[in-house]
Write a structure and sequence with these properties.
By secondary structure, the protein is α/β, with parallel strands linked by helices. The protein is built from nine helices and 15 strands. Helix content is about 30%, strand content about 30%. The structure holds ribose-5-phosphate.
Length: about 290
C-alpha cells in the first residue's frame, strides 16, 4: 500500500505515510494557462493505494482526482482509498428552492463511484447523520477530531468554557467538552446571507470567563466573529476559537482578528498557519483497523 499525495497537501500526506510506515509518492499536477489540469502519477503503483488530499477549494481537485483514479485503475490498482479530512459539498443537503442541485448527494455518489473507500473527519452532516447516506456506494468512514481537540484544550492553563455558535455545533462541542471534562454551552444562530449572521447567546453568566468557541467550519468567519462580539458584550475575560476545518474564505481571518479573538486554533485538515492539531494518527488508525 502507498500514499499518493499532492503538492498542496504534501506535509499531511507524508505524515500519514510515516504513521502507516508505507511509501509516500506524489502526484504531479500541471495547470495549463487555460485552467485545465494535467495529472501524472508515478508508474509503479501497488494494488492498494491511498490518495491523500483535503477537498477545500474543491472544483479543480475533484477533476484531478477523477483523472488520477482513472490512471491508477489502468495501471492495475484495484483498491483506492481517498483520505480527505475536509469533505466538500456536504452542506447543501436539500433543495431550498426549485431548481437547486443537492450537492451532498450528487458529489457523494460521484466520489463513491471513483473510490472504494472514503475517509473523512467530522463531515458537515445536518439533516442526515451517517456519511454512507451521502456516499451509499463505497465504504464511507467518518472520523471525529473531537478526542484530539479535547486533548489540546485540556493542556490550556485555564479550563475554558466551550461555546458552540449554533445548534448544529452541539454534536461537536458536547463531545469535546465531555471528553475534556469541560463546561459547554450552545448559542442560537440566524443566517440572513453568506456574510450576515446573528448570534443569540444562552442566558449564562460569561463574565470573566475564559471561553473557546468551537465549530466545525470557519468559512467567512462571520459565525465565530459574531459569537465573539456577543461574548465580549457579556464581559468575558478572553475568547479563543478552535476549528476543525479552517476554510477561511477571503477576509475571514481579518474578520476574526477584528472581533478580538486571541487565538485561532485549528486541525491540519486544511493547511493554515492556525494548525495546531495533526490528524495523521487518527487517520492512520482508521486505515489500520
Ligand atoms: C454551519 O452550520 C457550520 O457549522 C459553520 O458554523 C458555518 O459553516 C460557518 O460559516 P461562516 O464562517 O461562513 O459563518
Amino acid at each position: 500500500m502507498q500514499v499518493l499525495g499532492f503538492k498542496d497537501y504534501h506535509e499531511q500526506g507524508k505524515r500519514l505515510a510515516a504513521e502507516l510506515a508505507i511509501e509516500y509518492l506524489e502526484v504531479a499536477i500541471h495547470h495549463f494557462p487555460d485552467g485545465e489540469s494535467k495529472v501524472s502519477l508515478p508508474t509503479a503503483l501497488d494494488a492498494e493505494i491511498i490518495f491523500c488530499r483535503s477537498l477545500d477549494h474543491p472544483n479543480n481537485k475533484l477533476i484531478e482526482l477523477l483523472l488520477a483514479c482513472d490512471v491508477a485503475r489502468q495501471q492495475g490498482t484495484s483498491h483506492i482509498t481517498l483520505v480527505a479530512p475536509y469533505l466538500c459539498y456536504m452542506r447543501q443537503d436539500i433543495a431550498f428552492n426549485p431548481g437547486e442541485a443537492v450537492s451532498q448527494i450528487i458529489i457523494g455518489q460521484w466520489l463513491g463511484q471513483l473510490f472504494d473507500r472514503i475517509i473523512t473527519v467530522d463531515p458537515h452532516l445536518h439533516r442526515i447523520h451517517e456519511l454512507n447516506q451521502a456516499i451509499p456506494n463505497a465504504e464511507a468512514i467518518s472520523l471525529s477530531a473531537s478526542g484530539l481537540m479535547a486533548e489540546f484544550l485540556m493542556q490550556r492553563p485555564n479550563p475554558p468554557v466551550l461555546l458552540g455558535p449554533d445548534s448544529e455545533s452541539e454534536q461537536w462541542v458536547k463531545h469535546i467538552a465531555e471528553q475534556g471534562g469541560l463546561e459547554w454551552e450552545v448559542a442560537g444562530k440566524q443566517r440572513q446571507g453568506d456574510h450576515n449572521v446573528e448570534i443569540m447567546l444562552p442566558e449564562v453568566d460569561f463574565e470573566d470567563r475564559v471561553v473557546v468557541i468551537v465549530d466545525d467550519i470557519a468559512s467567512t468567519g462571520r459565525t465565530i466573529a459574531q459569537a465573539a462580539k456577543a461574548l465580549r458584550q457579556r464581559g468575558v475575560q478572553t475568547v479563543d476559537c478552535l476549528i476543525t476545518h479552517p476554510l477561511f474564505a477571503d477576509d475571514a481571518e481579518q474578520v476574526l482578528t477584528q472581533a478580538c479573538i486571541n487565538h485561532i486554533w485549528s486541525t491540519d485538515s486544511i493547511n493554515h498557519h492556525s494548525n495546531v492539531i495533526q490528524l495523521a494518527p487518527l487517520l492512520a488508525k482508521a486505515i489500520q483497523s
